[in-house]
Specification:
The protein is α+β, with helices and mostly antiparallel strands and 400 residues long. It is 45% helix and 12% strand. The chain starts with 18 loop residues before the first helix and ends with a helix.
């Protein structure tokens, strides 16, 4: 198997901007004066979040199911449920949060989603070949499990609701028990799921499953050191597998080193785009934030040169092909802001206007919408994460 090899010339190591400067100075520079409202950092938006309301109306059913209409099975995934719960929390929309949680409990966890009776949610639900609607793949997805645990813990804190906290803690315990493995020479690491990712001495890993703020929040809650160790290991994973500054969708651990994934190869595309998003969202005060950003600078440099992000990149060579869709711009907006790339951020903003304008023939699909909400929500100041991974929504500090 091929190992990842770093180029001889190091990538640009300019420092990331601090949080206050990151969003405010970029938003109010001349290039972006028409795209953002300017003012003090604490003047975050407090009104209704129209983009979120549009997402709920188009993709969330009355009973709390997030539907990906672009798929033949009209699938619902644990990912979609977890992201929508996060957005509901950012929007201070507890009724929708509860609908999403209830649907997840009933349909992805077969009713077993309580602190004393908890199973990890199945990752995929939809229309099966026989025409029935049910779970399609029962294997859990650890990234979604992480986000649901995070959503619950933050909801418990922000809404003063101990029931959410208890469920979030119980889910975090199950994740650690069933989806974390101690890899020789690396330490504890989050597997993509409980089954199917370890074979013949090779452990498959997904860099986009490891958002630093979420890992920090679990470390803050659990206090046993394992989640901090996973965060350190995640930085090693991202750094080692991005020799040209581009993250792959998948990688693997074999005989004490990171190697190219034997099934997916070294391509970075629709999964990997989230690595840049999570890097951009991490709090600058986190000691891992700057090296994490520096490890994946290749995408910023490519967009500055070409004007568009490549749809696919070979992580081992840095060779890109195609043009990334709307979802990429959503993911990259906070990343550009964190790096101080004003022109690229303005470019992202112009592309993301399609989320609100409804360009004919370019109706945003599920993935466009969710990454767009992550990106625009951050650069509009609707939320950020502190160094402990705690969610700070604008309504919690400025809206009364």
């Amino acid at each position: 198997m091929t190992a990842f090899v770093k180029p001889a010339i190091a990538l640009d190591a300019r420092p990331a901007l601090p949080l206050r400067a990151r969003f405010v100075s970029l938003a109010c520079g001349a290039a972006l004066a028409s795209a953002f409202a300017c003012g003090p950092a604490d003047a975050a938006p407090c009104g209704d979040w129209n983009a979120y309301r549009t997402f709920v109306s188009r993709f969330v059913t009355a009973d709390g199911r997030v539907v990906d209409y672009s798929t033949p099975t009209q699938q619902t995934t644990s990912e979609g449920q977890s992201y929508a719960m996060f957005f509901a929390l950012v929007a201070n929309d507890r009724p929708t949060f509860d609908r999403l949680l209830g649907w997840t409990r009933r349909n992805l966890a077969a009713g077993q989603f309580d602190p004393d009776n908890l199973r990890l949610p199945s990752w995929q639900w939809g229309k099966r070949p026989d025409g029935t609607w049910a779970v399609i793949d029962p294997n859990p997805a650890s990234d979604s499990d992480l986000w649901i645990a995070y959503d619950l813990l933050q909801a418990g804190r922000l809404w003063n609701a101990p029931a959410y906290t208890a469920l979030g803690k119980a889910l975090a315990v199950q994740i650690a028990r069933r989806e974390v493995s101690d890899l020789a020479g690396l330490g504890p690491m989050l597997l993509p799921g409980p089954q199917g990712f370890v074979e013949g001495g090779v452990t498959r890993l997904n860099p986009s499953y490891l958002p630093l703020p979420v890992l920090r929040a679990l470390a803050h809650e659990q206090h046993d050191g394992s989640w901090s160790a996973i965060a350190q290991g995640a930085l090693k994973l991202v750094t080692a597998t991005a020799p040209h500054g581009f993250a792959p969708d998948w990688a693997a651990w074999r005989l004490g080193q990171f190697v190219v994934d034997p099934k997916a190869g070294d391509v970075g595309s629709y999964d990997a785009i989230r690595v840049y998003l999570w890097a951009g969202l991490a709090a600058p005060a986190d000691p891992l934030a700057k090296p994490w950003l520096n490890a994946v600078r290749g995408m910023s440099e490519r967009v500055a040169q070409a004007g568009v992000p490549p749809e696919k990149v070979a992580a081992t060579t840095g060779i890109g092909t195609g043009e990334g869709p709307l979802s990429y711009w959503g993911a990259l907006a906070p990343y550009f802001a964190a790096l101080g790339e004003t022109k690229s951020l303005a470019l992202a903003r112009s592309h993301l206007e399609a989320l609100d304008d409804g360009v004919p023939g370019r109706e945003p699909v599920y993935y466009d919408r969710v990454l767009g909400l992550f990106g625009t929500g951050a650069i509009e100041g609707r939320y950020h994460f502190d160094a402990d991974g705690q969610l700070v929504p604008s309504w919690s500090r400025a809206c009364g």
